[in-house]
């Protein structure tokens, strides 16, 4: 790759004679955050540890990339934390958005997801349990997905995904810091199958077209499993050739399948790169250098033409990227109250929603106007997971704040 060190422009390096393909590089993007210096700050990692017990998550989850720093802001680098401190005074709302409900789940929340029919919210907790919540019911907690193994391990649920399609409405996938992938039957509260890896599993994604579930690991590997046979289908990773950059070099925090092509998907993580994969190839076929993904910070539009990338840093936080070319469509400026993006999702065709930490903020952004239409600041210490009731459409929204899920409503 080549860089002239200036501005926020692009340079295309098309001189790849080793099969790497044309890689698109946003110039002068901010690198990853540094590790914290104080004991309190060191407990707040890109998958946050509990702030009550101070217990580390094991398997390297409590360590940040070495020799890396976020872009400059008015405050010092050492004051940066993945979960910031909540300001006094409660939530501050701006625009056509309101908080419908706030539900205490009794433990720190790591991931959440609406069920396929949108009637319940699945909440993955610090202790390894998954609560099934009906926000509209008087007794909001319906059931808990946990067993002897999850209770014994007592390690966080790092990601929850539902299997697309009405026939799979009770099929729930969950990844764990223990290295497990568990596929649950929500109706029977039982595990359909379980797979254990030596390293932590940080994310997963069900293929919307074929019977495959992919997981992203702490060592940079991506593994694809056949949901029906429960057997390993592929291992996708960086090649051993030191001259090739065709896979992740660090933790993978997000996987998003192409909505129309069953063989293609994207991934992002701590190494500051989005990789584009063809499941028939052992290594990535393209990469987009720059976005620093520290959670659920990737999404694709419904036609598979654009990527939305949210980075945990002070500049170039929110990028719209053309999927075919890797070119940046727009670099949406952050608000004056700058919040580091940890999670995002398309909200209808023309809007996106983001959740952030350091300064806790939820935003709804008009992608055509490139401006914030509504926001909530100070909604707890930080937002690391969100979902909308009817995925891809403007609908009710669930966001986490520490131990609570908040149900929001946005109107244009």
What does this structure look like?
This protein is an all-beta fold and 412 residues long. 2% of the residues lie in helices and 41% in strands. It contains 2 helices and 31 strands. A 5-stranded antiparallel beta sheet has the order 3-28-27-26-25, with no helix packed on it. Strands 4-31-30-29 form a 4-stranded antiparallel beta sheet, with no helix packed on it. A hairpin with a 3-residue loop joins strand 10 and strand 11 (180-185). The model is unreliable at 1-81 (pLDDT under 50).
Total DSSP helices: 2
Query: What profile does the largest beta sheet have?
Result: 5 strands, antiparallel
What is the molecular shape? Answer: globular
What fraction strand? 35-45%
For the termini, the CA-CA separation is: 42 Å
Give the mean pLDDT. Answer: 82
> Looking at the chains present, what oligomeric state does this protein adopt?
single chain
Write a concise keyword list for the protein shown above.
412 residues, mainly beta, five-stranded antiparallel β-sheet, 2 helices, 2% helix
In short:
By secondary structure, the chain is mainly beta.
Secondary structure layout:
Layout: E1 10-13, E2 23-26, H1 39-42, E3 92-94, E4 97-104, E5 109-114, E6 121-125, E7 130-133, E8 141-145, H2 148-153, E9 157-162, E10 171-176, E11 180-185, E12 190-196, E13 201-206, E14 212-217, E15 222-226, E16 232-236, E17 252-257, E18 264-269, E19 273-278, E20 286-289, E21 298-300, E22 306-310, E23 318-322, E24 328-332, E25 340-346, E26 351-357, E27 361-366, E28 371-377, E29 386-388, E30 397-401, E31 404-410
Antiparallel strand pairs: 1-2, 3-28, 4-31, 5-6, 6-7, 7-8, 9-10, 10-11, 11-12, 13-14, 14-15, 15-16, 17-18, 18-19, 19-20, 21-22, 22-23, 23-24, 25-26, 26-27, 27-28, 29-30, 30-31
């Amino acid at each position: 790759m080549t860089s002239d060190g200036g501005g926020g422009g692009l340079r295309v390096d098309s001189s790849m004679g080793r099969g790497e393909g044309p890689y698109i590089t946003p110039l002068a993007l901010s690198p990853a955050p540094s590790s914290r210096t104080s004991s309190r700050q060191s407990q707040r990692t890109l998958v946050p540890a509990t702030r009550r017990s101070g217990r580390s998550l094991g398997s390297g989850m409590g360590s940040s990339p070495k020799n890396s720093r976020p872009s400059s802001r008015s405050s010092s680098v050492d004051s940066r934390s993945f979960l910031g401190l909540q300001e006094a005074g409660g939530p501050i709302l701006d625009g056509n958005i309101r908080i419908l409900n706030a539900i205490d789940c009794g433990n720190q929340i790591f991931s959440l997801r609406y069920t396929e029919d949108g009637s319940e919210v699945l909440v993955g907790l610090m202790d390894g349990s998954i609560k099934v919540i009906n926000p509209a019911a008087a007794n909001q907690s319906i059931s808990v997905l946990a067993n002897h193994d999850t209770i014994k391990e007592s390690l966080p649920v790092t990601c929850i995904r539902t299997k697309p399609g009405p026939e799979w409405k009770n099929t729930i996938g969950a990844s764990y810091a223990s290295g497990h992938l568990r596929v649950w039957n929500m109706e029977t509260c039982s595990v359909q199958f379980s797979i254990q890896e030596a390293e932590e599993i940080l994310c997963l994604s069900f293929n919307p077209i074929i019977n495959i579930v992919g997981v992203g690991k702490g060592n940079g590997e991506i593994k694809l499993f056949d949901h029906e046979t429960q057997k390993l289908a592929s291992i996708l990773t960086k090649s051993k050739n030191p001259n090739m950059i065709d896979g992740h070099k660090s933790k993978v925090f997000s996987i998003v399948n192409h909505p129309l092509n069953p063989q293609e998907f994207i991934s992002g993580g701590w190494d500051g790169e989005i990789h584009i994969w063809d499941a028939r190839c052992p290594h990535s076929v393209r990469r987009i250098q720059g976005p620093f993904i520290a959670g659920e910070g990737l999404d694709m539009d419904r036609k598979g033409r654009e990527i939305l990338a949210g980075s945990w840093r002070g500049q170039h936080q929110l990028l719209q990227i053309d999927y075919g070319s890797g070119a940046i469509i727009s670099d949406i400026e952050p608000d004056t109250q700058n919040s580091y993006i940890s999670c995002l999702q398309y909200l209808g065709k023309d809007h996106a929603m983001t959740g952030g930490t350091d300064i806790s903020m939820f935003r709804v952004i008009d992608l055509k106007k490139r401006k914030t239409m509504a926001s909530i600041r100070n909604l707890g210490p930080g937002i690391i997971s969100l979902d909308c009731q009817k995925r891809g459409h403007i609908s009710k929204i669930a966001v986490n704040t520490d131990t609570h899920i908040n149900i929001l409503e946005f109107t244009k």
